[in-house]
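Known limitations

Structure tokens in this collection are predictions and should be treated as such. Users comparing against experimental data should check residue numbering before alignment. To illustrate the layout, the record for 4-hydroxy-tetrahydrodipicolinate reductase is reproduced below. The input appears on top and the generated tokens appear beneath it.
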Amino acid sequence: MNIALFGYGKMGKMIEKIALKRNHDIVAKIDLDATDINFSEIDVAIDFSMPNAAYGNIKNCLEHNVPIISGTTGWLQDYQKAVALCEKNNGAFIYASNFSLGVNLFFELNSYLAKLMAPQDQYRVAMEEIHHTQKLDAPSGTAITLAEGVIENTNYTKWKLDSAGNMEIPITAKRIGDTPGTHTVTYESEVDSIEIKHTAHNREGFALGAVIAAEWIVGKTGVFTMKDVLNLS
Ligand SMILES: NC(=O)c1ccc[n+]([C@@H]2O[C@H](COP(=O)([O-])OP(=O)(O)OC[C@H]3O[C@@H](n4cnc5c(N)ncnc54)[C@H](O)[C@@H]3O)[C@@H](O)[C@H]2O)c1
Ligand SMILES: O=C(O)C1=N[C@H](C(=O)O)CCC1
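Generated tokens:
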């Protein structure tokens, strides 16, 4: 498969390594300006760039009929525009806040736990995410997806960074060293706590998931999620 990388930073480089191991070719590495791209040779594009760049990269690929996988976080105000563009162009697109298999299983566990906790008024939920100090966005995309999983299954109405009001989920974002990504969901009562936690040991899981999603999407049309890719629906 011919892959184009949009964003050649920490994730772009890790994705390249894994894609080459899986016998794919990297035919373009676009790290800043998207000039001189030969879209006709690209089977699929993978975007791990920056919050202010992701939508432009997605738009560019969809308008050139190239399927695109995006793992960039912090651009979700434009997500519905990307969905509409994908549908208009009969294209193929996946965004995931986290491509690792472990985190996608953790999302399922989080939703199941939220369903169990919904009738238990004596518990209050809270979330914490820890990432490296270069991360631009807070809270992490993964923490937002976890909060959405709780909101879908309980009476909580929204999430908020740091302090939160009644029926709001407080998310604490910490930036420590080179932490690849740690997420904790805690339900606290007067008498005990229940905690689930996912710890990424490195970036390989994210990168492998993105390459698997890219392999999966080629030849398909539509807007998909990692649930579709991993058959978790
Ligand atoms: N979904 C996931 O599984 C997952 C996992 C890890 C990181 N991320 C997200 O992926 C993004 C990238 O992470 P990273 O650690 O590689 O960051 P990074 O800062 O190491 O790399 C980002 C790269 O994007 C480049 N860039 C800037 N503008 C660009 C443009 N217009 N087009 C193409 N490239 C451009 C930068 O020059 C930089 O090299 C972040 O938003 C991060 O939150 C998501
Ligand atoms: O390193 C990052 O930046 C990460 N971003 C994603 C997020 O915001 O959830 C996934 C984990 C790593």
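For this record: The two ends are 27 Å apart (CA to CA). Residues 73, 97-98, 131, 135, 140-142, 181 surround LLHOTIJI (ligand 2) (CB under 6 Å). Please report discrepancies through the issue tracker.
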